[in-house]
Amino acid sequence: MQLDHYITDLLYRYECVIIPGLGAFLTQNQSASINVTSYNFNPPSKRLSFNQQLQTNDGLLANYISVVENCSYELGLEKIRAYTKHAKQELHLGNTFTIENIGSLSLNMQDAIVFEPKSTLNFLTDSFGLSSFISPEISRMQPKSSTEKPVILFTPEKRVALPFTKYAAIGLLALGLSGFGGMYYFSSQVHTHNLAEKQKANSILENQMQQATFVLDNALPSLVVSVKKPVGNFHVIAGAFREENNALSRMEELKEKGFPAKTLGVNKFGLHQVVYSSHQDKNEALTVLREVKRTENADAWLLVEASNK
Predict the structure, then answer these.
(1) Is 234-304 CATH 3.40.910.10?
(2) What mean pLDDT, rounded, does the chain reach?
């Protein structure tokens, strides 16, 4: 069905795509992996899962259908209802409902939906063009140890040295060693003297610096730098409105309740989005989202914007 392609397109861009009345498909980043048994190398990817509990309409799929098919938002919801009704009929008949390029849904003995993902697509755009491959086993040959010892052939030569030459060489060696010892002693004395003089000079300089007074007649004016506080890419969405006045009214209501609410402007669907809060840390945003859904608005959802870096 045509909705299969719409769901696939949205899974490339978002971490959560809800089919109202049926469930939600969730993606989670997965690092590259190696199967040490089959020598299979897998690139980074997004692991796909299904949550039957998330059925509340967040407007994402319906808005996308209205934009692609150039129809109204209500007509997009009608198409989703028909799609969901057909899927549930197939499941209750005991059949497997297949979603193209995504996977299949079926019911288990407890009438819970079981999702079997299809592994042909990688929804991580950063891994575009990368595919799994199998590398042949690498054999490392150990060098053979040789027990044979090398044979060294040499011919001894008879050397004759005069006793006078031998004693002269010993005398020169003794003179050289004594000269080297004297130079080393002299060098040590010079180094000790220089070190003492350096410490004395440093002490005098420190005393002069402590007694000195610095006067600045023309002081430089103070410089005030305004730093723009970074805005996070994770937004807890309170709602999307066709009219800007409605969005501004909703924002003021949330501010009166203590939320750092704001508007994100007009999205690609022509709607003015209002957020409870924005965060730089994803886990912090999810914590706020869970609290808002529990106490404030069960239809709140998380918008993840791409980083500008």
Answers:
(1) no
(2) 76
